[in-house]
Prior knowledge:
Layout: E1 2-5, H1 10-13, H2 20-30, E2 46-58, E3 61-76, E4 81-88, E5 94-97, E6 117-120, E7 123-127, E8 134-137, E9 140-143, E10 149-151, E11 156-163, E12 169-175, E13 179-189, E14 198-199, E15 204-208, E16 218-225, E17 228-229, H3 248-259, E18 272-275
Amino acid sequence: MVHGTIDSSLFGALQHEDQGATLAMKLARVFAWDIDFYQDPRKGDQIEILVERSYIETDDGLVFYEFGEILAARYVGARESYDAYLFEDEDGDPAYFNAKGQSLIRDVLRSPLKFQRITSKFTNRRFHPILKKNKPHRGVDYGAPVNTPVMAVAKGKVISAGRNGGAGIAVELQHRGQMVTQYFHLNKIAKGVKRGSAVKQGQVIGYVGQTGYATAPHLHFGMKLRGKYVDPLRQKFEPGLPVPSHRMPDFTALVENLSEQFGVGSMGVEVAERQDSQ
């Protein structure tokens, strides 16, 4: 069991672990639809993670090699608490569910970047740093280093990809439910992403840049619903399918077994190990 306490960030809470940054990224992906790890965490929030670890055999004995799958996790926050359990979905593929068997996946990712820093929010009036006048800011700006991967927030089709005036190098996607998403100021577009091509949720479609009207590297992320710009941070999206009804007894038993280990493990104790040899 790995424990962590939020002080200033998720990365900081897990820095005591070897490859703690990698584990933080894994946890962020598990809770990507429920927790924005830039905005939501509060000092004192608690984290518990049941995770596989693999080891290699050396002359000095077993040495930790890497983290595997997160089997279960719990985030106890000042605002809300969340849990996650790895189980099989309707198609038999591994997926995460809460203790009630509800999917943690949503039709739309909460953010197009795995980790991000919001530099400007959606507003109807903002002073434009380049045009030097007040204009609506119809999207969210995420500050990130050049070439940070940008992901499609939902399954869809590319309706434009290329240079687009002040938007710089940009990609625009059409999704079901009359939703369109926009990704501006890219450094470059990912290979194979072109007008008419299909994209999957989470697929890398480009890389953060500073093209067009941009004063620093960042991603401008815009969203339209039925032709009208909306604030991406305020939208609620439907969850994926729950645990299949015929599998609920197995899932309930799994949750009961793993839940017993929350709150009682000591820091750094491995509850699931794989031993590899060189």
